[in-house]
Write the structure tokens for this entry.
Amino acid sequence: MTDRRPGDLLVDPRRAGWVDAGALLIVLLLALPGVVTGTQSFFEFDLYFHHHPFWSLVEQSLAQGELPFWAPGVRAGYPLHANGEAGLLYLPALVANAWLPAHRAIDLFVLFHLWLMGMFSALLLRELGVRPLLALLGAVSLILSARVLGTAFWPNAVAVSAWLPLALYAITRTRRDALVGALLLAAALGLSLLAGRPQRELVCLLLILPYGLFILIGSPATETSVRTSRGSRALALGGGLVWGLLLGAPQILPTLFLLQDSVRAAGVTYANWLPAVLVDQGYADLFQVFMPAVRGDWPEISGYAGLVIYAGFACALGFGWRDLRKGRPLGALGFFLVASGVLFVLAGGGAWSYSLFQSIPGLRSVRLPMRLLFPAVVAAVLAASLGFERLMQHRTSSSWRGVLPLVLLGVAVCDLVWVAWRTVPVAESSVYAIAPGLVAEGESSRYDATGSPHRFYADHMPVEVMGYSDSELRMRLSHLPPLMNLALTSGQRAASGYGEPELAWVAAATRAPRPEILRMLGVDRFFSSRDLSRAGREWREFEPLGRHGPAWLYRFEPLPRALWVPEVVAVGSFEAALATLRDAEFDPTRRALVEVERGLSGGSVNRASGSVVLEVDTPNQVAMKVDAPGPGYLLLFDTWAPGWTAEVDGQVTPVLRANGMFRLVEVPSGASRVEFRYRPPGLVPGLVLAIPALVSWWIACPFAFFRRR
């Protein structure tokens, strides 16, 4: 880079960080005044019916001194780590949940990470030689882009995205200090993994890896700005990647362990619907990669970064191509970033990209929808900032070099703030105080013989049932799929669910549930989209409670949450168990089905009945007292999943999967106490890997600092 005069900067580089911090706070206040002050909240169906309930669960559990690894109120219970967005060990989320109501915790969590994203982006641009005001321009353009603000209702996605600019800065920093770069890269990757939503981390790696390769081979040792050899840079990049993976192991390993049992494990899903949508819409929608939707809402594919960025983008393309032809690899960085952005856009523009990724073993269920094009926005913003910097140096008179960046920044802020007002999905914060009203008659107070609350099930949950009077809210939420996870926030429990990963065997059993399965799930209220009086004979035991909007509400007597059963029967597969469960002649109170008998004693059928009483019921622990008339089994109608252990009178006992999806343990005759505990599989190995990595990281930090001093 050429020498600059102090008058060219307008901002002292030594104080640029403080200026960035204050300026970004002011910009966020201008763009999101209601969210900053608390009168408004981020609001959209994914946030309200998916993220907010689970943040509420964490908030309630932390208040009781427990970190919930299990969600008991949805789908008869499921492991939160099967949902890659849980981020249970991410410190900023824990702090926010511990001190604030869930909706306010989410708002400030997102705002904080938008601010972090801007700070790291400005830091990266200054490291690349961009003057402070233009670096601030790039930071503002990134955090106020429609692609970023349009995903503000995915808090974990924003958190992961915030660490991408720091990872790129760390990679760039290895050119002059390999150890510091490795430490920062490890921190960025580790924190982004702990934040959850690993599918966005996967897409961010598509920019991190080629950028690291570019910095590794595109910065010859003869350049005055490069102080490290290629060997030390390669060691720093490889070590930082491994270090980061180890730091994030407590989050990613449990998710991987649960992958095979979850349709939506790790936050990835089948993308069969999306290619068809893209093909139908055609490449005309690629216009929205940089422009907001004409109708004013947030588009599915949008990375709009301010009209002023187009000029810098064009400058980067021209200067980068010229430098590339003249053999200046470092000067071609802008062209590289432009090419990266275009590649992301084109790769997401057709169904072939999904087929490509789904053909890779282990990634066949991964979706890479256009909403994950955040790296393309980063590439566009960085390229535009570099293009403006080159323009300032070579094509601008000295009298304009100090004024033009300020003019560009002012125009971009006005432009982007206006777009933010039209783009960000927000609502009045009071929307989170609306009672869900899942059951108008207040039947949630009903308990079974064990002392456990009954569950409800819904094959249709229209907004009208929720009791909303605001017509705009009904319109915004009217297209929601069946069950809302508001059971978690309303203190009720559901046997069905929406927006969370469905354990495969539970999904198979409840996709078309029969009364026998609903009875085992403890369902006493059933919302249905059809009139069951016209259904088959097996549905006649349901008692109609009237119609609520377009849904019918029914009630019938279910089984208690837990039973003592005297006999088990071995079946060959889950499909065989499911077929038996749907047989009206099968009596789940007298026997249980296990896919592998594992040495269990069958014995004769004891016609006497045992009693079961609930003692402890928390997300990670269930304890029950059993009074058995003879040797037999405790059948708990909660979802089985890897990670559950049990003790009977203090003795460890295997937890078997019974009836295809429930928990079963062997109990002796007489009185006994059974205690179930849940620990995510892979959590302990993840901590074993992460703790030494964290200790070594802390030891290396002062060493790197004092060595530089």
Observations:
- The chain has 25 helices and 20 strands.
- The longest strand covers residues 670-678.
